[in-house]
Amino acid sequence: xxxxxxxxxxxxxxxxxxxxxxxxxxxxxxxxxxxxxxxxxxxxxxxxxxxxxxxxxxxxxxxxxxxxxxxxxxxxxxxxxxxxxxxxxxxx
Amino acid sequence: xxxxxxxxxxxxxxxxxxxxxxxxxxxxxxxxxxxxxxxxxxxxxxxxxxxxxxxxxxxxxxxxxxxxxxxxxxxxxxxxxxxxxxxxxxxxxxxxxxxxxxxxxxxxxxxxxxxxxxxxxxxxxxxxxxxxxxxxxxxxxxxxxxxxxxxxxxxxxxxxxxxxxxxxxxxxxxxxxxxxxxxxxxxxxxxxxxxxxxxxxxxxxxxxxxxxxxxxxxxxxxxxxxxxxxxxxxxxxxxxxxxxxxxxxxxxxxxxxxxxxxxxxxxxxxxxxxxxxxxxxxxxxxxxxxxxxxxxxxxxxxxxxxxxxxxxxxxxxxxxxxx
Lengths: 92, 323
Hints:
Distance between the termini of chain B: 37 Å
Oligomer: heterodimer
Strand order of the largest sheet of chain A: 1-3-4
Shape of chain B: globular
Mean pLDDT of chain A: 86
Number of domains of chain B: 1
Low-confidence stretches of chain A: none
Structural class of chain A: alpha+beta
Number of helices of chain A: 2
Largest sheet of chain A: 3 strands, antiparallel
Helix content of chain A: 25-40%
Shape of chain A: globular
Low-confidence stretches of chain B: 1-99, 101-112, 178-277
Helix content of chain B: 10-25%
Strand content of chain A: 15-25%
Radius of gyration of chain A: 14 Å
Number of helices of chain B: 8
Mean pLDDT of chain B: 43
Distance between the termini of chain A: 33 Å
Order of helices and strands of chain B: EEHHEEHHEEHEEEEEHEHH
Largest sheet of chain B: 4 strands, mixed
């Protein structure tokens, strides 16, 4: 896969990077666009968290790590089949 | 928990050779899940190498007197084609994977004897391993030199048109074949590759996320083993990534390429495979991946690589060359 020349969003948050200043909404919009595209392709990422979001030096957001991704069909949504990063799981 | 090393000679049938009569080594080796260990003596091979017994005996005595973790190479493998030649590791190759975690630490001066033999023993099975389509991953720690470098760590750098290999180390790691202490004692003609390689010009890598079931390695592809175009050679050398020290961790030796993703490294030339390109290699833990996949038994869950390849969006990492 491509090399992303940047940092993880978790690193930017933990270090209170000035790169976040004034770009939070932009990053959020880019993340939403990526997630929307994933859903339109029939998949669910299931592990969206700052660690799996990279921000390039140019300010482009990249969603990574599709290890937990599954097709968005009923067969894959079984009770108890819960996964992801605990702090970022949906409350339901 | 470190594993206690069993004496492979104890289980050997038939009359014991001179090399197998030594005192049983009761040292410990670092625990690598799934790895097999044996004493670094060559039991069966000793019979074929009459001179090796005399060489190995003093080396074994030195190893027995040293604390654990002094020079070792851990091998992660399945299959057969045994080649017992490493210190503390079984150099077995198969079509599945060979995952090398090499470190010489400060012990290097006594290596030249045994590893002169190891150097002769490793290439043949490695050649068969190449033909079987395996990927050779070498994780080098600091320092990696001497026999460990010659026998294991730098084998992946040997020019081979068919060899798929990945060699990774960090910027400050000290990599060379011949340490100053043994300079002049090992003839250069024994070195099957260019000696004295060192430092940030050679390789470096960023390996993080060791606690989860994936690890990331940033590499700079400098070889045609990922590219079918002729005329190229050399090793797959990692490229330095400027990351905070907290994000730099040594890889888990239990990590290895998941079987079905491993083929990604053997594909022919494709988009973005030009020499010198920077790519990211994802290394999966087989056990954890299998545990996750077990949730979807009976369902046709696409492979992760297939999913990533199908997604083409500016806000999603681009993946190439998956199977």
